[in-house]
Amino acid sequence: MRETTKRKTIKRRRKWPKVLLAILAVLVILIAITWLKFGSQIKTSIADGYAYSSHLDAKDFYPKNSTVVYDKNGKQLAKFSRSDASYTKEKDINPLISKGLVDVEDSRFYIHHGVDMYAILRSIGSRVIQHRVQGGSTLTQQLVKNVVLKDQSQTMSRKIKEMVIAQEIEKKFSKKDILEFYINDVYMGHASYGFSSAAKYYFSKDQNDLSLDQIAMLIGIPNNPVYYDPVSYPERSVKRRNMVLNIMNKRGLISHKEYMSARKKPLGLKVNQHSFDNDISKNYAVNYAVFSATEELMKSSGFSMKYNFKNNDERNDYYKSYGQAFDIAQGQLLNGGYSIRTSIDPGLQARVEQLVEQTYADNSVKDKDGKLQPQVSSTVIDNKTGNVLAIVGGRGTEYDQLNRAINGYRQPGSAAKPLVAYAPAFERGYLPQSSVTDSAVGSITNWYSGFTGQTTVRHALENSINTVAYKLASQDKQKSYYDDLAKMEFARLSPNDRNPILALGAFTYGTTTTEMASGYSSFSRSGNFIHPSNVSSIYDESNERMIYENRHLPKKVYTADASYLMLNTMQSVITDGLGKAASLDNFKYTAGKTGTTDDYKDSYFVGMTPNFTIANWTGNDHGNSLTGGQEGLPMATFKAEGQYLVDYLKEKQQNFKKPSTVKVSGSNLSIDESKRKQTIQDIIDLNFNDFKTTQEKQNQERLFNMDYRIIYHLSKKEEFKREAKVQRAIDKYNDSLMVKESDYSKKLDELQKIRYLNINVKRQKAKNKFTDQIADMQKQLNLQQATLAAEKENGKLAKYNTEKRQIEAQRATDRKKMVDKLMPQYNEQVQKVKEAYKNNDSDKEDQKQELINLMNEIRSYGGTVPDLKLYINN
User: Fold this and answer.
1) Are 720 and 763 spatial neighbours (Cβ–Cβ below 8 Å)?
2) What superfamily would CATH give domain 84-263?
3) Which residues of 740-778 are buried (b: 16+ CB within 10 A; e: fewer)?
4) What H or E segment, with its residue span, contains residue 596?
5) Which residues does 355 contact at the CB level (< 8 Å), separation at least 6?
6) Which ranges of 130-155 would DSSP assign to H, the alpha helix?
7) CA distances for 686 relative to 329, 385, 488, 555, 742, angstroms
8) What is the DSSP string of 658-714?
């Protein structure tokens, strides 16, 4: 019997080496596959990390120069920097902040060199084994991600660059310096950067005057500034603060008495709103520029805008992350360091505001809050570029600072009909003269009593017949109108809006005049939408890089035929329908649509010429009904603005461009299929994606050869001088071969210097060529090093394996000793927790947390303890 057991044991032991070899083989294969797939990207990311690091110095972490907004002619419109911003040197920082932050966020800060592999492995193990989320990033990595890279994207490339830069920063700066940078630059919520700024915002205090509980609350915020926001979620903030206090007590930073006293205190917030050198709310156009620039900064940091949602949970989750990203990006922008070029024409903006004021002059009543009523919102879009030429967000910033043109979401009423009901119907084959029936459908009623029976599509739009619009939208079984609105970036769409009632303007959350104007302007571009903005470019002065350039890229929404049919039918609204009051005296080719909501709480008009589109809304902030005279204000405002713009833009008396496929006979229109392929424009429309790809490729090629002049403003001589430096360095590198393994480091340094030189090359085509050469040189260098190293490897391998086994055995012994040492403490703490819960002691949660900490520590050394199960006697 014993002999049989012994033989089985020997067989099992013989199997183990085979199993280990199999596992090792699988790992090698996985690593090889990963390298083949991502090797080039990894090498590029590493090189980029070194390139970023080479230019970093202390001033990159100090307060930035003001952010400046320029008008279309390059004249300064506004300068932003926080008037309450203060950079606190290390010697002046409250020592409890420094010590507490390290203990809570990065307890191995003074041990690691920028990247803590132990913390990373612990984080992975916690996720896989215990299904708990633990951070693996060090304070240095967080500093790199938020200040140097300004990139929140969850990509391998970003993470590699972050790790490389973090280690390089640790070589350049002391731990005190890095901690000073972090404490001054970390995001603390509500556009607060750094502990000094946060102390002033949340408590109206200097950071040196904070109490222990207030310091603990601030230390708890950076982990998740939105989730632990003390203003929005005070309960979460208290729990987080108390956890921080518990850690500080455990680490000996504070006494148990101080801990117990501080955890009982309320938050005691005394919010002091930030102020800026120039308040962004005082100028509607600048306010919109900052809004647009903030969203572009969000995109450059890895945030993806979303407009189409499967369900409300998905939508709610998106807006939580959007709010966090927006808050962070706007804080960065206003803190300084950026140049924002815009298409703002101050004279035009001022004149449009003046025209609005004059139109509303006889309708000025102050409400209980001292605000003028009714209110107004107006957005003017350039049809060719999508630029917002002028924007009015209310009756002046003297009474309130809300920019209703981008944040005032109200119902558009029947102004939604062209976008939701009619344009999709024209795409399905309807024509303006097509027959439709005004008759009862569900609970839908018209603005007039009863129904008119058989009519045409044109007449239905002219007279804003609700039943017809609802029926047309109901026929759209795919609900393409919802997807069309999402393509045109209607930001507050809800999954509940997948409903034909949307044709009557019954949005769940409403729309803005900027969304309506940009949507309508798509009709003037043969159905192509262009993202509305008044920002031309954003330049990061601190890192000397272009963040954004507005290329006015078109996005296909409607067909060219349907767009023209829509424009032609909306022209009848002006000439023969409910929009007659909006007719321009100095221009005959105008299209538009009126809109009112139930009880006349909102009144809308969107009108357009071939050159521009204007969307106007009026209503009372508190939802009171408008008077009969006030309902017409949007059309009166359009008339005043439109007549001025026709003269200002010198618009010629020309109608909207008609596709060759559309045939006009009086008021009747038809589609001539035989002419569909006769014009270049039609070919472009039908093969839009191919055309766009070809154009982008050609433009990219031109840019790759001329970007040094267009973007970086270098002369040909200056650029070629930079390229010559790189080529000389490459030639010098190739002249000397690596003859011994000790030469590897020297050659590697030479390669890195070549990479640094290549950073200064601004002609992208040349830069790419050098990058490929450098990659090949790196590959050859690695092969040479591997060949030389292989000659030594055989002799060292046996010695290495012996040492490795000895080290692993010693580590296993040490881990077992630690487990044996901790187990008595664990058993004792289990009893304490049971007694605390049994007696309902006030510190039962603390006792439980201490037990959890012991369990985690035992498991980290390879020990096993059962999951925590408390049987509480109720």
Assistant:
1) no
2) Biosynthetic peptidoglycan transglycosylase-like (1.10.3810.10)
3) ebebbeebeebbbebbebbbebbbbbbbebbbebbbebb
4) strand 591-596
5) 637, 640, 641, 644
6) 139-143
7) 39, 21, 20, 13, 62
8) PPTTEEEETTEEEE-GGGTTSSHHHHHHHTHHHHHHHHHHHHHHHHHHHHHHHTT--
Place of tokens 């070809």: 694
CATH topology agreement for domains 84-263 and 380-652: no
Q: How far apart are CA 332 and CA 352, in angstroms?
A: 31
Pick from 468, 472, 470: nearest CA to 455: 468
Architecture in CATH for domain 380-652: 3-Layer(aba) Sandwich (3.40)
pLDDT of residue 18: 61
Range 300-304 contact pairs with CB under 8 angstroms and sequence separation of 24 or more: 300/150, 300/151, 300/547, 300/548, 301/150, 301/151, 301/152, 301/153, 301/325, 301/328, 301/329, 302/151, 302/152, 302/153, 302/154, 302/155, 302/158, 303/152, 303/329
More confident residue, 480 or 704: 480
Q: What is the pLDDT of residues 424-453, one digit of tens each?
A: 999 999 999 999 999 999 999 999 999 999
Both tokens assigned to 469: 């619009």
CA nearest 105: which of 128, 148, 134? 134
| Type of residue at 829 | Q
User: What is the number of H-type helices and E-type strands within the chain?
Assistant: 29, 18
- Segment (H or E) for 366: strand 365-366
Q: Where are the domains of the chain?
A: 2-54, 84-263, 380-652, 707-795
Dig out the tokens for 399 from the structure. Answer: 């009474």
Among 641, 623, 635, 614, CA closest to 408: 623
The encoded tokens of residue 343 equal 């298409």
pLDDT digits (tens, 9 = 90+) for 171-222: 989 999 999 999 988 888 887 888 998 999 999 999 999 999 999 999 999 8
Strand order in the sheet with 76-80: 76-80, 67-70, 338-342, 535-540, 545-549
Can you give the length of the chain in residues?
874
State the CB neighbour count (10 A cutoff) for residue 848.
Answer: 17
- Residue with the two structure tokens 């199993």: 19
List the one residue out of 723, 733, 731 whose CA is nearest residue 781.
733
Cα separation, 479 vs 500, in Å, equals 8
C-alpha to C-alpha distances, 290 to 164, 281, 320, 340, nearest whole angstrom: 33, 10, 20, 8
- Predicted pLDDT of residue 153: 63
